[in-house]
# Entry
Amino acid sequence: MGYSLMKKSDPLTRRFAPRLGPPPQQRRRVELGKALPALTVFASVRLTGVIMATLWSLHLGSHPRTMLGLEWDGRWYRHIAQYGYGLIVHAKPGHFVWNDLAFFPLFPGLIRAVNTVLPIGPVNVALLLAWSGALVAAWGVYAVGELLHRRRVGITVVALWALLPHAIILTMA
# Structure
C-alpha cells in the first residue's frame, strides 16, 4: 500500500479523493439538479439579452434572426456549412482580403450534420447549436465555481458571466 502525504482530514483529500457511489448517469442527473439554479439564471439573463437584441434589430428595420444568425462570423459559418471552404473576399486594393480558411471546420460541420437530420435551415441550426453550447459552457463555469468554492459562488460566477456586455455573442450563431 502507498503512503499518502495528505491527511484524511485535509479538505483537498476529501474533495478530490475517489468515491464509490452511484453510477455515472445518476451522478450526472444529481449534478445537473445542483446546477439547475445557475442554468436558470443564465438562461434568464441571456433571454433578456435576446429580447433586447430583438427590439434593437426591429428598431433598425432588420429581422432579429438575421442579426443573431447572420452577423459577424455567423455569415461565414453558414456559407462554409452550405458550400464548403474556398470563399475569398477581395476588398479595395491595398485593403484586407478575407478568407474562410480562418474558421475551424467543427461548427460548420455540426451545422451541416444537424441540418441534414433536422432540416430547419442552417441559420436556425446554427442558433440552436450556439445556444445549446452556451448552456453547456454555463454548466462548466458553474462546476468550476462550485468545485473551487461552493454552490453559491458557482451560481454567482455564471450570473456574472451571462451579464458581461459582450455575452451577446453567446447567443449569436
